[in-house]
Design brief:
The complex is a heterodimer.
Chain A: H1 3-34, H2 41-59, H3 63-86, H4 94-116, E1 132-134, E2 137-139, H5 141-163, H6 165-175, H7 177-182, H8 187-213, H9 220-234, H10 239-259, H11 265-279
Antiparallel strand pairs in A: 1-2
Helix pairs in contact in A: 1-5, 1-8, 1-9, 1-10, 2-3, 2-4, 2-8, 2-9, 3-8, 5-6, 5-8, 6-8, 9-10, 10-11
Chain B: H1 7-26, H2 30-56, H3 63-81, H4 85-107, H5 114-132, H6 134-137, E1 150-151, E2 154-155, H7 159-182, H8 184-194, H9 196-201, H10 206-232, H11 242-255, H12 262-277, H13 284-298, H14 302-335
Antiparallel strand pairs in B: 1-2
The chains are: A mainly alpha, B mainly alpha.
């Protein structure tokens, strides 16, 4: 086996895996605070990419402006969606929140289609397309951006949850709603912030992948699906799990496409997922919990 | 299905079916008849998922795939190997049941979203296989030339004949389902849906019953798939993808999770929605998403739950009026000097 081919496959896997990890991060944040599966996550990823591409096409603004702008727009979208649909739920059971997010997902997709159009759109690479040669394999400069921004986001989110008052309040609310409310934490508001973070990080993922894959209003479903699988691989509700699950899923797909069949690459990833669920249901890094009845 | 299964439910079902038998003579054209046929198979799909969601509190995100396995197994056997659809039917049900058992057995032991996750992954695998096993399934272009059911040498391929077949099949399935819910098993299921731990303490083998519900539910979906395949004469992978599975979960919730008649309403919405929304054009998706959120916000127990509430209110008003009349009568009696 040619080592440069292996390296090439690893590069590809890590690039898509980083995107999956970012999407999985959003799933985990919402899952932690509501126990619900957030079906809107993939649509936010798509909305981020579409928004950035649209701003670029309309105004030609530089990356430094349009990236934060698009992220903020989608984060606001997450905020508004939460306030309009999750917050007013009279009994916010995990099932009810999950179902509501399906509604948010459909509505988000529709709004992007109506406002930004049905055409596939793209963004230029952040710093050229001249591939970098590493050990006989070629690496797109955009891949470095993707991995770099993934690491930055992971570190940022980690610090947010560990060091800031709001982040720690959110952790407390996720761990025990009643106890958190008793010490004066506004639990409903922490849920709102979780949606904001999920939408924002999702949008970032959508923006940085767009120069490689293009995007259109239909792209969200698949991205969400993959991100959710990554979140499950790593263990739902676990931030480090999102990183590991995302990278693992990306690498699995990349190697399965090369060594088994590109047609079956999706199936291979999901077979691994099922096996993992059967034998290690808490995910690779999740710890199974003893529940008191 | 927390509402008691009683003779009223059987009676109401019987009345509904008698009315439905008359439908072909009432409808102006076959467009409505075909919609009614579609509705019947959708009732089966939504009711089967409702059984699972209502009783075990678990979500299956693979009902589209089970529906598809039913359709493909029976369809491929008939179209490629000349096996009679009547033999294909039990084979398809058995295959789906086995697959559901394999997916459900390891995951239903666990508390939480594990069945949802496993079924989501399973639906993805099934979708890939429907496309890639080209020799059998015809790949992305779909499987063509699926023969219709025949009865005593007569092909049931006219709209009307198939409507009656679907009516009979779905009717039988629903009665079996009601019988199941009315039995000892049904009582155990009701117990575990209200208090799982309590049920376990009373000696209900929760794991076994959950698997039973899941397998039965998947097999009912497969039955719907068989009907669909031999009616449509053509099946293609996108009819059974993840999106279909998600929509079925949504329809159960819209009808009212665990509400027997809710499944009929959910299936009605699922059938009519594309027809209704067509007039909205590009706005279709937006209207759909927003109305979904609105229904979930204002009718947390679904449209079936809202209907129950309405019925209760009307009934209590009647009762109030009746007792008023009685009270008035009693007062009148008392006022009569000779009594």
């Amino acid at each position: 086996m040619d080592p440069s081919l292996l390296l090439q496959l690893a590069f590809g896997g890590i690039t898509t895996g980083s995107i999956y990890a970012l999407v999985a991060l959003g799933f985990n944040v919402v899952f932690k605070s509501t126990d619900a599966i957030n079906f809107a996550q993939g649509e936010w990823v798509m909305a981020g990419g579409m928004m950035a591409a649209w701003i670029h096409q309309q105004f030609g603004w530089p990356l430094l402006t349009l990236l934060p702008l698009a992220v903020i727009c989608v984060a606001l979208l997450g905020l508004v969606s939460e306030r309009l649909s999750v917050y007013p739920l009279s009994r916010p059971s995990p099932m009810a929140v999950t179902l509501v997010t399906i509604g948010i997902a459909i509505a988000t997709k529709a709004m992007v289609m109506l406002l930004l159009g049905k055409q596939p759109m793209s963004l230029p690479s952040f710093s050229g397309v001249e591939p970098i040669r590493v050990g006989g394999a070629s690496l797109q400069p955009q891949a470095l951006w993707i991995v770099g921004l993934l690491i930055a986001t992971m570190v940022g989110v980690h610090l947010f949850f560990e060091r800031t008052l709001l982040g720690r309040a959110m952790k407390a609310a996720a761990a025990d709603r009643e106890a958190a409310a008793l010490v004066g934490i506004n639990v409903a508001r922490t849920v709102m912030w979780c949606f904001v973070i999920a939408a924002g990080t999702g949008a970032l993922a959508g923006i940085i992948i767009t120069p490689i894959t293009l995007t259109s209003f239909t792209a969200g479903t698949v991205l969400g699906f993959k991100g959710f699988s990554a979140a499950m691989l790593g263990g739902l509700g676990n931030l480090r799990g999102a990183l590991a699950g995302g990278l693992l899923l990306g690498l699995l797909e990349s190697f399965a496409a090369a060594f088994i069949s590109s047609k079956y690459k999706d199936a291979v990833a999901f077979v691994v997922l099922l096996l993992l669920l059967f034998f290690r249901p808490a995910g690779l890094f999740g710890r199974s919990q003893v529940q008191k009845i | 299905m927390h509402a008691q299964i009683s003779t009223t439910t059987y009676r109401a079902l019987a009345i509904l079916w008698v009315l439905l038998i008359a439908l072909p003579w009432i409808t102006p054209n076959n467009y409505w008849l075909n919609l009614a046929t579609l509705w019947l198979t959708n009732v089966l799909l939504v009711a089967s998922l409702n059984l699972l969601m209502g009783y075990s509190g678990q979500i299956s995100l693979a009902h589209g795939a089970f529906y598809g396995i039913g359709a493909y197994v029976s369809g491929v056997l008939a179209a490629k190997y000349g096996v009679s659809p009547w033999i294909g039917l039990p084979l398809a049900l058995a295959a789906t049941g086995l697959v559901a058992f394999a997916v459900g057995w390891p995951t239903l032991r666990l508390r939480g979203h594990y069945l949802a996750m496993a079924t989501l992954g399973f639906n993805a695998i099934a979708s890939v296989l429907f496309v890639e096993w080209r020799d059998w399934t015809g790949g992305p272009n779909g499987l063509v030339n699926i023969p219709p059911y025949t009865l005593f040498g007569v092909k049931l391929d006219s709209d009307r004949a198939f409507y009656f077949l679907a009516l009979a099949a779905v009717g039988v399935a629903l009665v079996l389902l009601l019988n199941l819910l009315d039995s000892r098993i049904g009582r155990a299921l009701r117990a575990l849906s209200t208090a799982e731990v309590g049920a376990e303490c009373m000696g209900v083998n929760v794991h076994r019953y959950k698997i039973l519900v899941f397998v039965v539910s998947a097999m009912l979906a497969a039955l719907a798939g068989c009907l669909y395949a031999h009616h449509n004469a053509f099946v293609s992978p996108e009819s059974f993808d993840f999106l279909v599975s998600t929509m079925l979960v949504v329809m159960v919730a819209l009808g009212g999770t665990g509400n027997w008649w809710g499944a009929f309403l959910g299936a009605l919405i699922y059938t009519l929605l594309p027809e209704l929304l067509r007039s909205f054009g590009d706005l279709e998706l937006l209207v759909y998403g927003v109305s979904l959120v609105v229904v979930l916000l204002f009718f947390p127990r679904g449209l079936g739950g809202a209907l129950d509430l309405l019925c209760e209110r009307i009934a209590s008003r009647f009762r109030a009026r009746e007792s008023n009349i009685h009270a008035a009568g009693a007062a009148a009696n008392r006022a009569r000097p000779d009594s």
